Amino acid sequence: MAVESALIKFVKEKFPNFVISTHSFRNDDTIVIRKEGLKQVMTFLKTDKNTLFNMLVDITAVDNLGSEPRFEVIYHILSLTLKLRLRIKVPVEEMEAEVDSITSIWPGANWFEREVFDMFGIIFKNHPDLKRILMYDEFEGHPLRKDFPLKKQFPRIQMREVKTKY
Amino acid sequence: MKKEKEDKKDFQEGIELFEEKIDGKHHLLVNMGPSHPSMHGIIKIILELDGELVINSEVEIGYLHRAFEKTCENRFWNGVIPYTDRLNYCSPIINNVGYVLAVEKLFGLEIPDRCKYIRVIMSELARIADHLTCIGAAAMELGAFTVFLYAMKAREYLYELLEDVTGARVTNAYTRIGGLKADLPNGFTTKTLNALDKVKEVIKETHALLTGNRIFIDRMKGVGIVSPEDAIAWGFTGPCLRSTGVDYDVRKAFPYLVYNEMNFEIPVGENGDNFDRYLVRMEEMIQSIRIIEQAFEKIPSSLPTTEGLEYEPAKIIEMAKKGLVPEDKDTLKLLLPNTLEGIDAEKIRDICSSDKSAVLEPKEEVYTNIEALMQHFKLIMNKHGIRPPEGEVYFPVEAANGELGFYLVSKGEDKPYRIHVRPPCFAILSALPVMIKGLMVADVIPTFGSINMIGGELDR
Amino acid sequence: MSGEAGFLTTKLDEMLGWARKYSIFSYPFVTACCGMEYMSVSCAHYDIDRFGAGWPRFSPRQSDLLLVVGTVNHKIAPVLRKVWEQMAEPKWVISFGVCATSGGFYDNYATVQGIDRIIPVDVYIGGCPPRPEMVLEGLMLLQKKIASQKQELF
């Protein structure tokens, strides 16, 4: 077990109730937190003068099909002033796939959250306009889930007949 | 007759749908796109207009969604590289470099110095090509067709260089995990420096045509302004963030490869408007040229190739069948076909990591040595392949549009469990409604052009 | 018209074909990476203008060649068909690049496996993206086809 970085220690001491686990694989500081504390932790990390994570870099999710909890929502945040990076992970159950939206903290989260909703079907509570972004309304299902077949298509218009073998 | 009536009714209903009554005024909804003449890339902007003023707007994307992430979860680690080409297709090599750096971080691989320098040189060439495309296309949309022709002319010189090294003009797929496809060809340095001189000329010409041009200034200056606070909150990176005065560049803030040894400046703007974004891009090209010139001075030269007789692979196999061994076994060299130029065993050692679990053996070894042959098959056969350790990494590089990040999750298998790309223009484009609010319809075009949206990385 | 075509109509056909093949107005439906090569083809180095197909028309109503440049997915498919329907006869379609031709290496839930499932195609150009020389060859093939086909006047 590697030595905990100062940043992880700092957050862990501040929010002992919310932090589930931490790791620093290849020096990427990662903190897994409970989803109830997401907004609180994020607001703290953004405003506190020791962290000052002023930019939200990315939001994505991972589908760990077969294990519980099934989904993980992953936030990458960056502090431009302190040159720090941090990864926050939030485990989400399949039956209750809901997370608080953080668009009120970073407006840039808007599209990233819509993309995660589109691709994984995870709902972001209090999101201003949660709808599909990359796929279209006729599309059924969420393509990046591991149980979605790679080649299942939902055409929007009648396709022409073509010779498939020559 | 009846049909005509129905058509008329439909038309009326359509008009009513289009005109919404807000505050007693008629607002017009206009669809801009997905196939619009003055937009490179397909995207739909729904504008709510009051006369010519943009009251509100909504951006719809996804018209180039080709399932990059899902497809790559079904490919081998090295097989992902061609897909990364097609993310930002204006500067494919930066995507290649970003992806392999992420995988190398996952592995904990160390790569040779020469490889690092070559990656830097190629990335910067790609960055210049990208900026030329962006500026040329944006100027064309404003009617400055000459600039477009000039920029494409300069880009063609760079494409010829890229083709010399990688074999492809646009989709290069040049990097490999732990190294490169091949070493630089002979005489590349002089050729590059000559081409860069020509590019510098074009940059000068572009300055002469645009920077003082009254029409261009009027349409660019003071349009699409973003404040630094807004830019940071929306997740802007790259030239769009730097134009607001924030000097964040991944190459300086989190140096990778050999950027910390290079002497270059980060150009920043003041106002964060379209004109500043244009100026930042112009200056960045000059800085990229500086980086390339320094890299050519510092790059460790490859070892001189040893002299020896050259054999065709088929001939060696024939000899082996007869139980013969070539006399000059130690200095034996293989006569490789032209497509494999630059990957002789000596050069591979300079440009590829020595880690046998990730990098293919040189072809000479594979043809003449049983261990190397087994190793080769071990890495490319189905159900074997490259297997990074279990874990997750995020690696950012400075792409032409901003921070391009690859988030990889490995479960210790030969295929990535999850690949996610953090596309720079995704975050920037999500702020487009804020940037064009209160502007005229005509201002949408230069604002959109200066963002440099690339469909491939936006929709993936 | 029934039976054999007369001397005059054949000559008229030939003349129209000759005129039509050198005045191609193209509508570039640019979606993806192939657009980079489309830019190269249309600019000074490769100069598509030599073949009389230089000036792109950005309105489907005024063009007779639809260049589908790049990947077409299911979201854009209705748009592509609409653009094609809006073009006036006679019209031709070139599928530019392997993604438009067959879906290329994007065999997945989002991508249409070839635009011939949406609209009829005259010339397919392979390559990912095709080199400018290949594009010019495809254009020359189309010109041959235009010149040799029966010319509809009305």
Automatic annotation (TrEMBL), chain A:
Gene Ontology CC entries for this record: plasma membrane
Pfam families xref list: Complex1_30kDa (PF00329)
Keyword set includes Translocase: yes
EC numbers: 7.1.1.-
UniProt key word DNA damage: no
Family annotation (PROSITE patterns): COMPLEX1_30K
Superkingdom classification of source: Bacteria
Protein name (database record): NADH-quinone oxidoreductase subunit C
Automatic annotation (TrEMBL), chain B:
Domain NADH-quinone oxidoreductase subunit D, first and last residues per copy: 142-460
Gene Ontology molecular function terms on file: NAD binding; NADH dehydrogenase (quinone) (non-electrogenic) activity; quinone binding
Membrane topology of the entry: Peripheral membrane protein
One Gene Ontology cellular component annotation held by this UniProt entry: plasma membrane
Membrane-crossing segments per the record: none
Oligomeric and partner information: NDH-1 is composed of 14 different subunits. Subunits NuoB, C, D, E, F, and G constitute the peripheral sector of the complex.
Protein purpose: NDH-1 shuttles electrons from NADH, via FMN and iron-sulfur (Fe-S) centers, to quinones in the respiratory chain. The immediate electron acceptor for the enzyme in this species is believed to be ubiquinone. Couples the redox reaction to proton translocation (for every two electrons transferred, four hydrogen ions are translocated across the cytoplasmic membrane), and thus conserves the redox energy in a proton gradient.
Family stated for the protein in its record: Belongs to the complex I 49 kDa subunit family.
Protein name: NADH-quinone oxidoreductase subunit D
Organism of this sequence: Candidatus Fischerbacteria bacterium RBG_13_37_8
From TrEMBL, chain C:
Domain NADH:ubiquinone oxidoreductase-like 20kDa subunit: 33-141
Enzyme class: translocase
SUPFAM superfamilies: HydA/Nqo6-like (SSF56770)
Pfam family, one: Oxidored_q6
Family under the similarity heading: Belongs to the complex I 20 kDa subunit family.
NCBIfam families given in the database record: nuoB_fam, PRK06411.1, PRK14817.1
Name of the protein in question: NADH-quinone oxidoreductase subunit B
The organism of origin for this protein: Candidatus Fischerbacteria bacterium RBG_13_37_8
Gene name of this polypeptide: nuoB
